[in-house]
Amino acid sequence: MRADRLVSLVLLLRQRGRLTADALARELEVSTRTVLRDIEALSAAGVPVYAERGRHGGFALLPGFRTELTGLNHDEALALLAAGSGRGEQVFGLGPALASARRKVVDALPESHRATANDAAQRFLVEPETDLLSRRAVTEELPGTTMPAVRRAVLAGQKLRIHYAATDQAPRWRTVDPIGLVTVRDRTYLLATRSGADRTYRLSRVLAAEDLPEPAERPNRVDLARIWRQRCARFLSDGHLTVLVRVRPARREDLLNTAVAVRAEEPDADGRLRLEVTFQDSRHAEWALWQLGTDAEALAPPSLRTALRDRATAIAARYEDSPRG
Asked: CA 128, CA 126: separation in Å to the nearest integer?
């Protein structure tokens, strides 16, 4: 909404001082032309914003200007709640609302505490793009055009129509009764029912969404954590391969990064770990265990041990002689 954007623009100028139109446009995620129109609207409303020309110019507020602009709207309050559970700027498509809410919170602080709060915020970094091994985190992009409709349907208890691209299927429209949203490992899921049957949808595969006026068929209260556990258990028992593995502790995370889930884990006699993990199928399990070389050993099922042995034998035979040619 434009009113929220105008408030954010004033707060940016109050907290950072002089900013160019391009810098404001990046912060507010709008065009430079929109920023210039907003500046004109603020001036017409009596907000003392002025322009400075030149190489280091930009827009600024007259010193000492202050007004009460700290009221949070619905999405901003929701963003702050979501931010407490992880990478808030990535959760449920609430990044712009979260940035605006943070500006309002900082502006509400006494001036003597504002600099301290800004300094403290710079000393915390949650979930950077890469880990210490320079491995880039894989974050799914949520379609910004679909998230508002999904959120509205979930929170208002209305039916939702989604254009969904399931794996190996052509996209098609579905009408569902939304229950809740879950984010885990930078993937976001919509828990819903369709014709009374449980359904779980990856939001990155929702190509379009429409919230409908009809009320959703769902209970008034929900235990989302319990529902998620039940659906995870059902997913793991549906056509997956269970493997018993011995692995060096140093390679445990590498194993877990390729497995679908861990069912059991205990230390082994020689200092290794014994884990019961699940993979999508035998091909997936063979590929994952091969990546770990001699740091891991598949103990069961026998068919997987045979497949790994045959692959190792073929590789050894290929490199037994000098290169051909």
From this structure: 6
